[in-house]
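Morning, I've got a small favour to ask if you have a moment. You're getting the sequence in one-letter code plus the fold written as tokens. Thanks so much in advance, here it is:

===
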Amino acid sequence: MQLKKTQQGPRHIRRQLAAATCTLLAGASHAGGLIASGDNWTIDSALLIYTEKDRVSLAEGILSISKEIDDDEFINARIVTDVLTGSSPNGAVPSNTAQTFTNPSGNSSYTEAANTTPLNHTFKDLRNALSIEWDTPLSRSLRGTIGGNVSQEYDYLSTGISASLAQDINQRNTTLTLGLSLNKDTWDPVGGVPVGFTVMPAFPAKKDIDGIKTDKTVKEILFGVTQVINRQTIMQINYSRGQSDGYLTDPYKILSILENDGSGNLRSSNPYVYENRPEQRTYQSLYWKGVHQFPNENVLNVSYRYFWDDWGIQSHTVDLRYRFDFDGGHYLQPHLRYYQQGAADFYRQTLTDGEESTLSYASADYRLGEFVTQTIGLKYGFEFKNGAEINFRAEMITQKGKDRSADAVGILQNQQLFPDNEAYLLQGGLSLDSDMVIKYIMRFFK
């Protein structure tokens, strides 16, 4: 979100910052750019294209609507549709010979060439998500928000509720926020839920499964303080804590099993097993954000997030945006983001023969590994005099992973066990109110 004119005052700025940073709670934040006016519905839409080099591609459509149903009381809704296709790393390491894997369904197999990262090239999914919230004043200084969300994928269903309270104190220069959310998710993986550390059988054999469905529960809490420093500057700090219980393993990820002679060769029989993760995860984060509007109305937006959990993962995120406002409603906003993550305690890129029977947990999922991600982007927007806005955003994302040296034995020392990756993002957005939509439709049919 962007700061508007300085004369809109600290209260308006505070709301924008609170909406932009309270993203922990599913469905509990305003959709970007939604400020209802009068009796009109405000409509915010966007189309996003994201593609990784030789991997996953995503097309996402977003529709957000908001209505002020009473004085300072809002109903907000957000609809998202994602279409994903492409290739996804299955967890196995590259080898100097071709490798053949059984698809999750067990009905077919695929082969990956030698000296390449094994990818499942049949990856595809469709996700539809809906979130609705009611945001209302409870008194002159207290606001309440309650919301619900549902997300449906081919093999995954997530439902949740959330609620938050925001209390103004110190002549409304300070806002204290408390938020809670609860999500119930259900996995229905293709081919059933594999038993951890059991072998991925060669096609057409069937894998060992522990039922066809499984679930998890996610509970989160957030405490936040927002402080107006002056008419041009506002800051916020949040502490959040969450806990996930249930099935936290990825049913489609495997690990390579090597011979225990140090050669780095795959085990001669049944060289792949399914990963296994703990059934509980507690995670915490500290988040700071500052927004400053300069006399020329340019806006600096900077944030830092520190995350840690009991799996051993720690991460640091720095995000910087600077909006240049120009005459005639034009603006440019460069974007820089830096993300650095350490590996989980049980992250392993390979296992040796028999080691799977001595471990409680292990995963080769690169998302649990040590890596650095950098993003550079630019957004252009144009604000019409009637309040509508059109904007375009382009970003390049690079990821550099770090091999786990203890797993790079023998011939694997010549392989990149955590290959670098890059992705590109394009997005176009349009914001307008319902009166404008009706006006243009009427003009079209005249």
Q: What stands out?
A: DSSP finds two helices and 21 strands in the chain. Confidence is low (pLDDT under 50) at residues 1-38. The longest strand covers residues 119-137. The longest helix spans residues 9-21.
